[in-house]
């Protein structure tokens, strides 16, 4: 237990020294990711929904310290309908291993390019 504002070396109520507490490390699992209720995405929902979904997924990645190697796997598990079909086609074209190794930034760009018209992007930029 940490003692707030205690000088270094002061023991907490459980007898653990403040300076020696190991940082809590946990790995984000699919179950933990889904427990955060990320927004699913289907292309019919529009650019604003896509951008809000991306922001939500990024928030989960940041709060849960998601390893970069797992981000695509988790993000693509919330695809539905036509978006899921698009992802499967992309993975077949480039190879599943390559598709799962792209960066989160590249997946974001691919999705925005695919599902957001220039007009929608321009409109959102003007509003925000």
From TrEMBL:
Residues 1-20 are annotated as: Disordered. It comes from the Eukaryota. The keyword Nucleotidyltransferase applies. Keywords: Nucleotidyltransferase, RNA-directed DNA polymerase, Transferase. GO terms for molecular function: RNA-directed DNA polymerase activity. Residues 1-10 have a biased composition (Low complexity). This is Reverse transcriptase domain-containing protein. It comes from Artemisia annua. The lineage of its organism: Eukaryota, Viridiplantae, Streptophyta, Embryophyta, Tracheophyta.
């Amino acid at each position: 237990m940490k003692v707030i504002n205690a000088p270094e070396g002061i023991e907490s109520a459980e007898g653990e020294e403040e300076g020696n507490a190991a940082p809590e490390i946990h790995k984000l699992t699919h179950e933990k990711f889904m427990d955060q209720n990320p927004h699913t995405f289907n292309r019919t929902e529009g650019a604003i929904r896509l951008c809000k979904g991306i922001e939500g997924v990024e928030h989960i990645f940041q709060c849960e310290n998601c390893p970069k190697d797992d981000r695509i796997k988790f993000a693509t598990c919330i695809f539905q309908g036509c978006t899921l079909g698009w992802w499967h086609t992309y993975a077949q074209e480039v190879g599943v291993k390559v598709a799962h190794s792209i960066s989160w930034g590249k997946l974001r760009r691919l999705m925005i390019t695919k599902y957001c018209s220039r007009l929608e992007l321009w409109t959102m930029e003007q509003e925000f």
